[in-house]
Amino acid sequence: MRDRPGPTEPLPRPVVDTHCHLDVVDRSLGESPSPEAALALAREAGITRIVQVGCDVESSAWAVRAAESTPEIIAAVALHPNDVPRIVAREGRDGLEHAYARIEELAADPATRAVGETGLDYFRTRDESEQALQHESFRRHIDIAKRLDRTLVIHDRDAHADILRILDEEGAPDRVVFHCFSGDADMARHCADRGWFASFAGVITYKNADGLRDALRALPRDRILVETDAPYLTPVPHRGAVNASYLVPLTVRAMAQTRGEQLDQVCADLWDNAMSAFGEW
């Protein structure tokens, strides 16, 4: 377990952390700042808005409460694809239907701007029956996002082809964000052609992420976002330590360097794109 990273040099313009889990504590990474401390540190670093993301009913309800009480925060709510088979194993189909209904109720709250993170994860879920449950869940979340006019936030791990296929079959909502984008340059261009956003986390700073940097370079300026996925995916030089929104400047600087663009311009683009993806707040 590493010590918590120190402060980062503030960005020249404010930027949005478009995917964060302020409520998650993972002791294996170190001691996370409290949500209140995390927000204060983020402001000092120039991160003045945060999208708080739910992964189950409990964390989605937490996200809505945080958004209702904190002007800097908006909520995203969903059942994470890995959680869906667990709900069925624990509570049966009735439990899953109840969870879907509760997520839809939370998604209708004015503090909620997005449905997510939803999608497919073939890295942790390899059983075909469990993958079928993920497919069903992804389609249900797409439907909720479309009916409630919410942004769709996608978790895509080792499932690019099926994610794109299901989006085509169901018809994507007006606003789509690929959280922690992990595709190649061709997939990045495919997403940009459809007006979807790609959000980049600290992974962009990792030595073995050349393909991801190629994807970032392939995207037009108006399709890129930045995130932490805190407390995970901490950027270099703090990889393996606990992540928080105040470390976003490390990722943004790496993005500017990768794209060969001025930091001030990248910050402005990231802010404008977040407002386009989730609405002003």
Description:
There is one protein chain. With 281 residues, this protein is an alpha/beta fold. It has one domain: TIM Barrel (Alpha-Beta Barrel), CATH 3.20.20. It has nine helices and eight strands. The chain has an eight-stranded parallel beta sheet with strand order 1-2-3-4-5-6-7-8. Helix 6 links the parallel strand 6 and strand 7. Helix 6 packs parallel to helix 7. The longest helix has 25 residues. It is globular and about 50 Å long. 51% of the residues are buried.
Mean pLDDT: 97
- Give the CATH level 1 class: Alpha Beta
Output the CATH homologous superfamily.
Metal-dependent hydrolases
Shape: globular
Oligomer: single chain
**What letter string, H or E per element, gives the SSE order?**
EHEHEHEHEHEHEHEHH
Q: How much helical structure, as a percent, in the residues?
A: 40-55%
Radius of gyration, CA atoms, in whole angstroms:
17 Å
Query: Major β-sheet, in short?
Result: 8 strands, parallel
CATH architecture annotation name = Alpha-Beta Barrel
Strand order of the largest sheet: 1-2-3-4-5-6-7-8
Distance linking N and C termini:
36 Å
DSSP, total strands = 8
Strand content: 15-25%
